Amino acid sequence: MPTKSPSSKRKKTTATKKPSVNRINKTESNSAIEPQMPAANEYTATHLNLPVTYEEVTSLFSQESLVQKLMDFVVPLESEEEKIIQHLIRAKQSGKILFIYGEPGSGKSTFIESLSWRKHIGLRKIIHINTSTHLPPTGLTEILKVINEAAQQAAKERDLGPTALVLDYLESLDDYPDEAVKGFYRTLNGILRNAPLLILWPVVSIDDANKMIRYSEGVSGTMFTRGEELHRFSGPPIERYVSIAETTIGVSNNGRPITDFGLTRGDLEEALTKIKTRTRSDQTIRRYLELTRETWNEKSGFLKGAIAKIPKFSEVWFVICHAKAEEVVKMFARRGDTIEDAWLANHDALYEYVKGTQRAGFWNARKLQMAINGVIRTRILYIPTNCMVAAIAAYSPPNSAVRQIVLDNGGSKNWTQKHRAKKYFESTPLFRQLAGHPPLVGKRKSGPGHEAINKAEPSFSAINKWLSTERGHDSILNAAIANLIEDKLRSEFDALEVSKPHPWIPNVIPDIRIDPKDTRRHINIEFHFTNNKQPNEVADYCLKKLQIYLQQVEQHITIAN
What we know:
- This protein has 21 helices and 13 strands.
- It is α/β, with parallel strands linked by helices.
- A six-stranded mixed β-sheet has the order 1-11-12-13-7-10, sandwiched between helices.
């Protein structure tokens, strides 16, 4: 698992900050108000374990009992297995690649794992490669090394049956140049030529799969079975969802029936009725289990009782800022189609940086879910560096050191004009989310926006170096962005505070806190300015901050372990 690079030095902490440099408040200050905290939560409920992702399943059971537990509730999919068997037969002499396409939550990971204990399939072994730990520019070379080792072992033990190798979390090769991708396939073709190895490559986009197939065509036509390069995985039949949920609850809760949790079969059937009204892509087994879990939450009052203890609901928005922030953030957040869904933190992606690390001492899959979309709602966004630099140039004090850093490192005098900063800000996810606009579709790969980011890079890098000195502090940057937000969106909120203690969560000082109009919620914005562009930097920052938030909230509400 990647670990945080020490290169990103940061003085920022959650509990201690320099005095506020800016405060904007449209209502009377509430800093002197002592919030009336409710009495200790006396509500208790029989907690329901209902894992909805493969990662949650693996965290619920010990490694020794995992396979047996999976065998107890995973539904065999004979028609899907038969297709895999055909590809394994073809891979007995020389290896093959098979893309497995399925909607997120359709059960791809669980199905692939189930192949290991289905004796009639005859696999020697299933090997997983977590490709998220192999990053550009050397990632493909590292992955090839692992594949080559697996291929050599598979050839030695050919008589025990073919080997399956799974490329987890490698859903596209867009982050690599064309020549590197072609070289990857050229080397892979040589590795597979005499190895009984079937590479299972899960993807969530047919377009990405087709693009990767086209790359291989110029190298070799033998790595894929012509006309069967991609297998469409549909998951278990929807008619079996109710029995899957019932069995899953029993196995995950030491054999207890659903009635122990206040649920009836009618509740499960009602959830099935709801799921059938969704679009086909949203009728996955994961979504159905989520609906079932939501039904239990509503009936038991577990989450409702917890939130009732909170004086005002809090959202935490992590805003990442560096030149490649857009690409990295998409790994940890769903862009979504609506304001409610936009930029919500991706549980599975963050949890990958919990498993097998010291973070597992605090986090488990359920607790992380409570922090992402439970007693706290977490979003992960980004702000382009050109917007950040323009905000500093236009909204910092005229004689401030940080403003001069921008001008001394390629910043144009035009950047000191507030209208330019506001123009950049209008296209950012942060502005659109605060203004109630749906997220923009697509990625800026070229054009004026891309050029502006490149132009801002020297200034942004210099600002990060300044932050690592004794004189630098990110509260000055936060104040500049707060001034920009207030100038552009002053009618959208009742209060905006910079570097002030949270009204009711102890030991938490958000970079910026916003109270939107007509809503019972705080938006706590935490900025991460860094030159470290690795994904583990984002995961490490978000998990550390979230742990502090959740620990403080847990002082006031009961969350079953």
